[in-house]
Fold:
Amino acid sequence: EDQVTQSPEALRLQEGESSSLNCSYTVSGLRGLFWYRQDPGKGPEFLFTLYSAGEEKEKERLKATLTKKESFLHITAPKPEDSATYLCAVLRRNTDKLIFGTGTRLQVFP
Amino acid sequence: EPEVTQTPSHQVTQMGQEVILRCVPISNHLYFYWYRQILGQKVEFLVSFYNNEISEKSEIFDDQFSVERPDGSNFTLKIRSTKLEDSAMYFCASSLATDTQYFGPGTRLTVL
Structure:
């Protein structure tokens, strides 16, 4: 069965303290892995799409990487405005549905 | 930057009533989706829609649910007879191809 597991569930960082979020997945025939940011009471906001192992994408303080079993979202020198829940989702071949993890709730303190 | 919009932002209804949630997908997108998120839980797929028909649906999407694209811009989700357990955030999403999906801000549905 397709599964997405994110860790940790919650992460508290001091401003400037870099860290990584993990997304482990089990899916037969990965078509893509997606990272979204979700603020409280809002919809998921697209960040990155990764298609194959070894691929990396970067945007401001965020960098996403992909292996055959997991993806990491690295946050470099975070700021309080990076506080949000970060969601990982996978798309399997021959299907339209994204399968989401439960997310990592990130809090960055000044 | 184009975005998905949804109305209303919050809908309160009585159990057994019908509700229609509305979405305007990104204008050149061809694939449309509904997801829901019960408070504190994962985002869950409900249905996908392409070329004026349902392309895939989950086991949650039973006969009480229906989707429609009544014109060239709107995409709706109807729940015929709401239940308490339908209370959730409902998100519309759209994509140009079967790839990156862009989500709207959501409609919070509260069933009393």
User: Anything to note?
Assistant: Chain A is about 0% helix and 60% strand. Chain A has a mean pLDDT of 96.
